[in-house]
Amino acid sequence: MNLISELKAIQDRHGYLPDSELRAFSQRATIPLYQIQAVASFYPHFRLQPPPQFDLKVCRDLSCHMAGAQRLHRAIQQRTTTLTTYEINGVSCLGRCDQAPAVAINDTIYAGVTEQRFDELFSQFRRGEMPDPTMVQQGSTKFAIDPYPQQTDRFGALRSLLASKDVASVIQTLKDSGLRGMGGAGFPTGLKWEIVRNATGSEKYVVVNADESEPGTFKDRFLMEKFPHLLLEGVLLGAYVVGAHKAFIFLRHEYPAQEHVLEKALAEARAQGLMGSHIFGSDFSCEIELFISAGGYICGEETALLEALEGKRAEPRNKPPFPGTHGLWGKPTLINNVETLCMIPGILRRGADWFKSQGRNNNGLKYLGLSGHVQRPGVYEVPLGLPVEEFIQEYGGGVSAGKKLKAFSPGGASSGFLPASMSTIALDFQSLTQVGSMLGSGAVVALAEGTCMLDAALNVVTFFRNESCGKCVPCRVGSDKIVQILERATRGQAETNEIDLIGELAETMQLTSICGLGQAAPLPVTSALKYFGEEIMFHLTEKRCPEGVCFQGMRG
Ligand SMILES: Cc1cc2nc3c(=O)[nH]c(=O)nc-3n(C[C@H](O)[C@H](O)[C@H](O)COP(=O)(O)O)c2cc1C
Ligand code: SF4
Asked: How far apart (Å, rounded) are the C-alpha atoms in residues 30 and 50?
């Protein structure tokens, strides 16, 4: 029994977690009430009070912010003042950055919401209807990732492995391909699989990280919908190689369409003898379970994710030891990102050299989400090493409204900002690390001229402050201090020496935070100060915003 799943079941029945139900559950399950309350109060999806009739949430993170989410939030607030049965709040990234801004109405997420569209949607809700939230997946239409032209060829890499049992050659092929983890850290995949295979212990696990909650990041949403068979095959290959018989797919709860696709794919796989015991008639058995998260960006950090799977608060563990040797319930655990696993069948079918040849510098393929100020936001399959300017121009159709590029974030919120003058940089692991940034979560966000870089930096640091789990002081206090300084700066009220203090706070957070969230949180502002320092200081010295964005009561 997983505590989080039990709480979700209670919330599904009552719409929230009534105290009486928590007490009854505590007695039934002989779990101390304080332990249940500690978990219930951690996750943003859980409600401890009855919900209002209309629960409205406007995404406040970077791509939605740039698409006018604050204006939309205020407009919705004005429209609903006569209603007593509603609540309107900001919410962290809903993963619809390609069709911003996004709004959730009673937990159903709508993308590309204008004021007019909101009025239509809201009227339907008030009539008791539930409008269809389906959105079109925009982006590439041709894919090299799938090695199976026919549906009947699927799971060919797994069939070969079960016949040959040649685990060593799978690990060697992954090492030769140079495939690196696509979840953010870029750890070499072949090496990770080898570590878990060699870890002692007969009980091992495979975990798919499908939490994808970093602003600007939505490539895994696309991949799960288009290629669920590649994901399941990647999981089964991983399980066979490391010696696991149980796998979990940890999915964010804001992806109900993908949940449906995965459930269907799992049912089909079971019907075809691809799950359970004696897979394809072999001696290999494996079960795959879909676990729906109760929310929070921190759940994507691999050890926090494991805590959540164990039914606890998703607070990251101190590392080492790493999950490869001490993971789920202390057992060796292979954790990989959705995209990493989807790449593996193609690499094993076509070979390491084929994968490398797909990149500009013989370095492979990548999926990138493109959002912000571009004509054609979406998810694109690209050669690694593609220059940012080419990506924005050729794939994204250029900067929107005929404007010029001012800055870009090359790899999600954690990668900070780089100026347009650096847009010849190659989108690959090494090139971005060399300039103090990263390929990160595969999310390029384009910022057009007219964007205030202080406003953008404040927006991203606020996301990290809001999503900090609070376990360690440098992250919890440091991120809030930076937000306070930047908020005052947008009103021209910060002192120059406070801006200098940001550097000290950043250094402390980078050196002493337990996990990557606290370490990355200051990068949006330190990178903005490095490349757009004059623009930021202008707010303090001239008491106005050079782009006309701040000082207008725009910040909420
Ligand atoms: C705050 C934070 C959030 C993260 N979120 C995700 C996520 O949503 N998905 C993901 O695959 N990795 C995420 N990661 C990286 C994971 O910790 C881990 O490195 C990754 O899942 C390993 O898989 P890979 O080797 O295939 O990349 C996050 C890391 C941090 C520090
Ligand atoms: S760095 Fe932040 S998010 Fe990570 S453990 Fe510490 S408080 Fe939590």
From this structure: 25
